[in-house]
Design brief:
five-stranded antiparallel beta sheet, four-stranded antiparallel beta sheet, alpha+beta
């Protein structure tokens, strides 16, 4: 069994959610859950101002495109390519090209999981960035954002500073 990759499918503008629903229905009907793992229409939160009123709305990050995490084979290619509203895969000619790791990270699809070996109360040294060569004590750890809040001594006062997991080392 081959490894699943992320592919981009071009759709008619405004049909992204319909295409997603149709592909998901076909996956269920043809029992392709082990080959087409995820269908996604990436959204982002945007604040719109209309008539002086701020409103938080979700907008499509890539209008006209749907992302698929799937194993590419003749069956999955046929199912996706022949879904109503799909104009084709993104890639040269008829050959779909999977997204690279860098492309997925830049779009926010995949993030590196950083394994940390420190905990609250540990003393750490900042190894890069504005606070390089500064030492501090970890006061808070946010694994979701992959940052720690450390307490540094600045002008004789304790000051909280947020630092990325990758910018610190345990002392």
């Amino acid at each position: 069994m081959s490894k699943a990759n992320w592919y981009v499918v071009h759709t008619y503008s405004g049909y992204e959610n319909k295409v997603k629903a149709n592909i998901e229905k076909t996956i269920e009907n043809r029992k392709l859950q082990d080959q087409i793992l995820e269908v996604s229409v990436p959204l982002q939160d945007v604040i719109e101002v209309k008539n002086g009123v701020k409103k938080k709305v979700q907008k499509k990050m890539f209008p006209g495109y749907v992302l698929l995490n799937m194993e590419m084979n003749d069956d999955t290619w046929y199912v996706v390519r022949n879904t109503r509203g799909v104009t084709g895969f993104v890639g040269p000619g008829s050959k779909p090209v999977p997204l690279t790791e860098m492309e997925m990270k830049s779009m926010g699809i995949r993030k590196d999981d950083v394994v940390i070996d420190f905990e609250i109360g540990d003393t750490v040294e900042v190894i890069s960035g504005v606070w390089e060569n500064t030492t501090g004590i970890i006061k808070q750890i946010n694994t979701h954002k992959q940052i720690v809040t450390i307490s540094v001594d600045m002008f004789g006062r304790e000051t909280p500073v947020e630092i990325s997991f990758t910018d610190i080392k345990k002392m």
